[in-house]
Amino acid sequence: xxxxxxxxxxxxxxxxxxxxxxxxxxxxxxxxxxxxxxxxxxxxxxxxxxxxxxxxxxxxxxxxxxxxxxxxxxxxxxxxxxxxxxxxxxxxxxxxxxxxxxxxxxxxxxxxxxxxxxxxxxxxxxxxxxxxxxxxxxxxxxxxxxxxxxxxxxxxxxxxxxxxxxxxxxxxxxxxxxxxxxxxxxxxxxxxxxxxxxxxxxxxxxxxxxxxx
Length: 213
Fold this sequence. Notes:
Layout: H1 2-7, H2 15-38, H3 43-72, H4 78-102, H5 108-136, H6 142-167, H7 172-183, H8 185-196
Helix pairs in contact: 2-3, 3-4, 3-5, 3-6, 4-5, 5-6, 6-7, 6-8
């Protein structure tokens, strides 16, 4: 995806999206190294996996805020979006501390797991709010629409996986293998957006949804 962005000369414009993909690549390499050295059931791999997942979730929030800036840039609201993103990050940190403080008798890995789980649900809500703004403002840029839609599907899949794993914990082997498959969706969808649409490509909003005037 990063290579496609560079080829299309869009790396800086979609910097937060590329930052997330670079972080995802670095994390995957790191996980492989720890896995090869310590093994799948080792404490080192368990801690590295869950902490790296939390870092990736935060990077994904920056990517989401970057999409907010793109959608609202014509209104001159980029500064407000940046302030909102920082407040959101601070609020997430405080919320995570509250979870850890209330669950002192649990393992740190479970703290991080629950934090990531809650962040995915919040990210899902924020993505659908952004999609509502896209429709309301009659956003027509094909790439932006593709990015927002794919992120909404991505968050929905992860949120569903977290929810179902809590409802049906006896099917743990299924919920273990789904996240790696889900994680391939976002880079494929974003690569498609770069390869299929140029920066000037437009979509007719009426084809996406019918909104009463």
